[in-house]
Amino acid sequence: MKKRRILSIALAGALCLGLSAPAFAEELSLNAQYSLEGESTWVKEDITLYRVENEYVYVDESDGYHAIAGGTPLTVTNVGEENDYVHVFYEPYTMQTESMLLYVGTGAWTPNDEEIGLANVINGSRQFKGDYLCYNDGLTCAYYLNQDGGWSELESAILDMNYMGQASERDTYANALSGLFLKPGESATFTLPDDGTDTFYLLWVVSTNLDTGNIRWQYSEFKNVEAAPTVDTVTGFTDVSENDYYADAVIWARDAGVTSGTGNGQFSPDSTITRAEAVTLLWRAAGSPAPKSGSSPFSDVKDTSAYYYDAVLWAAENSITGGTGGNRFGRDGTLTYDQIFSFLRRAAGEDTGNGGLTWSEAAVAWAEENGLTDGLSYAPGDPCSRADLVYCMWKQMA
Description:
Blueprint: E1 3-6, H1 21-25, E2 34-37, E3 41-53, E4 56-69, E5 74-78, E6 84-95, E7 100-103, E8 125-128, E9 132-134, E10 143-145, E11 151-153, H2 161-164, H3 170-177, E12 187-190, E13 199-209, E14 215-225, H4 247-255, H5 275-285, H6 309-317, H7 337-347, H8 359-369, H9 386-397
């Protein structure tokens, strides 16, 4: 799990140029807004990255990074809706081999032991050495993807994401930066710098809807290596590493006949799970029992040869799902984490009421109490991935 903390409050958050303070307070899934593709290997390793700007210290903590060979092309595609625009920038975090003493602000702020890595702040200054540091003597150390496919240093005065949410200002913003704004369906291929230094690159992808002003973002850690390290994969799947947190769950699902993947040696761990796929996996985990009735109660589940037909009937008979309304099952609809937890709770026969909670709160509480979410990073309303569904099933059933 990765998280970014704002540790210094020397100045008001509204003055934090580079990115507005809320941008660092949370990260949102952009699965429905963009895709990012490229050859990389996930390396599980705890890393801490420090960014110092304008007397603020930001800390990004992660349990790993994407290792790429230098010059590896990465392709970002805007898969969002009309008026969703996508742009890209990165922050470089270079190993500080020489000692650097930086003023990080004091004011009413007193560092404490809980503020990781900053307990040695003395008189408002902190010595950085042996740290991955993003710093320059301006207000920002970020670089945006420009219209030529290269990188240009961001002008901090117009970097604030809230500015980008103003549709009327988009042309001004784009012209001022010569930034590359991808419209729905457009793609851009680029490479991260490779100067031989020990540097992590925090790659940000931002989606802005010009109608609503909604802004979403997501960042990932990348690092150039001489050659991407080889990691053993789970037998049967080329896209599941033995280091992945869900590897044991995938092995269990494979061996139990719950899933054989999506074809061509792929498990597709990051793909969102559909309602038809979810009940099919649950049905197989239950032993693929024959439904009591051969007649479907749903108008959109009539093909008796469909792989999910018996599973949907079984799920309806066991009150795991009643469909989406209007006599429809909604087989191609995606499921959110709280909906998955609700399915699992009902399949376990433990849906005994909500105790004053909403159905979502009750489902999440049940999943947490039963250890299904241990080691899992999620938001209840986000679409659930294939990997995380199998992970939760493994936690409950294995």
